[in-house]
Design goal:
The chain has 137 residues and is mainly alpha-helical. It has four helices and two strands, in the order ααβαβα.
């Protein structure tokens, strides 16, 4: 879908990286085109999200260094469409912290979006801790 978890994760990761003084390119997409072209869901934490929903493209697997899946279903879909020449590391975003999926808040209330924000914040820090440390060694 690409209107809830992934655009929030994109915005949070970009914000955390910026606060750390890291210059990284972050984008998000869905494994399906359910909401292609739509704006992110308005029930989000008070964070600026400039995004238009899109579906993953083959080129994403070589353009990006990491492709982070919100849950196991999306991870399976990513692995299914990953081309043989992929250079991006494809994994569950939660693998950088607690191996937990990010629950889809779409059918829930505002509390679900707040939980997703907090989880994205923790995952962003864990991801950047590991990626920044890997680049230093």
């Amino acid at each position: 879908g690409n209107i809830c978890r992934s655009p929030m994760g994109e915005a949070v990761l970009r914000d955390v990286a910026k606060k750390r003084g890291l210059d990284i390119f972050v984008d998000s997409c869905g494994t399906a085109a359910y909401h292609a072209g739509e704006e992110p869901d308005g029930r989000r934490h008070n964070i600026s999200i400039e995004h238009s929903a899109r579906q993953i493209q083959t080129s994403d697997f070589t353009q990006f260094t990491h492709i982070l899946a919100a849950d196991d279903s999306n991870l399976r879909n990513l692995e299914r469409v990953k081309p043989k020449n992929a250079t991006a590391e494809v994994c569950l975003w939660g693998s950088y912290l607690d191996n937990k999926p990010i629950t889809d808040p779409y059918y829930g209330g505002i509390n679900g979006f707040e939980r997703v924000y907090q989880q994205c914040l923790s995952l962003s820090n864990a991801f950047l801790d590991q990626v920044a440390n890997d680049k230093k060694t």
